[in-house]
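Translate structure to sequence.
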């Protein structure tokens, strides 16, 4: 499994604007977005009956994983089933497309057909976690993303704004959902790269007063609603 470095920073809106202006002048926008305002990311996060993913994140466990379904711009045209692995400050992700019917089946707590079973496929991993550990949907996480890429070093820089949450998990994918904002504005800068971040990009991202943190959108959104 290939892992990439992932650095996260909590930012004020002013810091985000300054850094985005610097990065946008040098790096190309991600090809998945259109317009100046990027796109919306909406994810449905799952956890088991023991809330292992949440507890591991809160405890800072070095090796952990998260289960989620992800859509973009609240459209069900593309639905991603993903398992994200975390190894300290390095991450890896397994992802595959699923149908809306499969999505609804997983939300209901049932397994879906696994046409190409493999030990590390997202469908196999989801089905195993559902049947063995009681994996169920826990919270919907949404934010606005503007992303930039630099091919050398496989660098991807994302500016995530207005992180917000909804606990009505059965409504995932429906229009008209109302979200509650997380505390402190919910602005997060994420920097991902393979091995070494190019020096000129590191200079552009001079953090100043920003705080590098092991920030988890899932954890913050779960904590917004308290236990349960």
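Result:
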């Amino acid at each position: 499994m290939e892992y990439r470095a992932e650095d996260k920073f909590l930012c004020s809106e002013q810091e985000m604007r300054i850094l985005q202006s610097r990065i946008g002048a040098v790096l190309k926008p991600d090809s998945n977005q259109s317009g100046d305002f990027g796109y919306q990311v909406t994810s449905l996060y799952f956890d088991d009956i023991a809330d292992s993913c949440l507890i591991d994140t809160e405890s800072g466990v070095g090796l952990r994983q998260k289960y989620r379904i992800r859509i973009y711009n609240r459209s069900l045209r593309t639905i991603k089933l993903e398992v994200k692995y975390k190894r300290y400050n390095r991450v890896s992700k397994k992802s595959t497309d699923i149908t809306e019917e499969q999505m609804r089946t997983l939300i209901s707590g049932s397994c879906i057909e696994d046409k190409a079973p493999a030990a590390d496929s997202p469908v196999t991993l989801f089905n195993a976690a559902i049947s063995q550990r009681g994996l169920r949907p826990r919270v919907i996480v949404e934010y606005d993303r503007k992303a930039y890429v630099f091919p050398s070093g496989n660098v991807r820089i994302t500016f995530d704004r207005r992180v917000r949450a909804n606990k009505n998990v059965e409504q995932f994918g429906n229009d008209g959902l109302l979200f509650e904002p997380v505390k402190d504005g919910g602005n997060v800068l994420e920097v991902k790269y393979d091995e070494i971040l190019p020096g000129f990009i590191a200079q552009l991202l001079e953090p100043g007063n920003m705080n590098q943190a092991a920030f988890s959108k899932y954890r913050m959104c779960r904590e917004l609603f308290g236990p349960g």
